[in-house]
């Protein structure tokens, strides 16, 4: 279930605009931390792939998180 959801989320990140995606960053960071500790290695790998899709989708909108 988690793998399918993460795959769908990664695809969604590629389809939506950065303005839409940046709104879910606070919730995603919370879920990301939980998913990194999952027992299943495939879930952890899919989590990283999804995070890569997120960063590629929003690029410069992510800058304000680190200021």
Automatic annotation (TrEMBL):
This is E3 ubiquitin-protein ligase listerin. GO terms for biological process: protein ubiquitination; rescue of stalled ribosome; ribosome-associated ubiquitin-dependent protein catabolic process. Keywords: Metal-binding, Transferase, Ubl conjugation pathway, Zinc, Zinc-finger. Residues 3-59 form the E3 ubiquitin-protein ligase listerin N-terminal domain. The lineage of its organism: Eukaryota, Viridiplantae, Streptophyta, Embryophyta, Tracheophyta. Pathway: Protein modification; protein ubiquitination. InterPro entries: LTN1/Rkr1 (IPR039795), Ltn1_N (IPR054476). E3 ubiquitin-protein ligase. Component of the ribosome quality control complex (RQC), a ribosome-associated complex that mediates ubiquitination and extraction of incompletely synthesized nascent chains for proteasomal degradation.
